[in-house]
């Protein structure tokens, strides 16, 4: 059953609908291949069709849906090629970020990263998958903030929507939270030590985990993946 979201006046309606639908697509609550009804979603959120249409366009730009004229809007199946390409770009960006962080990070941000990891452990213990993935993103975002380069994380966010679906599918079995937490701790330890080479190596290994887990997940959910 779909979660009931409340539209507020705090930001544009189309952005809120985009964010809600993105979350449901990423967590596969709305599965790959599903038809999205503009009318049903407008009724669900009690809004006109225009902001829903605008949200669909943003989802299309993120690679999550395909708008087929006269046929409807469908959730795109997962493309292994797009996942691999997105990971390659993300690895290049975040490798540069952690190298700078190892030389520039302040004690304040180190404390925030330590706190984030403790919250990750709590989410893992409570088996809160969505909460854990949000904290995972926050960890990487904080590192970019620590070098005053939030654009780096914004760039990553714009390309990782397809990756996020695989992250969610792999979390329970292939990439358990406990292992991801260990990887985050290794990244942070290298940053604390001022070891730029070690931080870069740790984040590269961390991001490559996704590719290693892609094949077994695709085999288990072959109808959710495109034939690249």
From TrEMBL:
It comes from Biostraticola tofi. PROSITE patterns: HTH_GNTR (PS50949). The lineage of its organism: Bacteria, Pseudomonadati, Pseudomonadota, Gammaproteobacteria, Enterobacterales. Pfam families: FCD, GntR. One of its GO terms (molecular function) is DNA binding. It comes from the Bacteria. Residues 11-78 form the HTH gntR-type domain. InterPro entries: GntR_C, TF_FadR/GntR_C, Tscrpt_reg_HTH_GntR, WH-like_DNA-bd_sf, WH_DNA-bd_sf. CDD domains: WHTH_GntR (cd07377). The keyword Transcription applies. This is DNA-binding GntR family transcriptional regulator. SUPFAM superfamilies: GntR ligand-binding domain-like, Winged helix' DNA-binding domain.
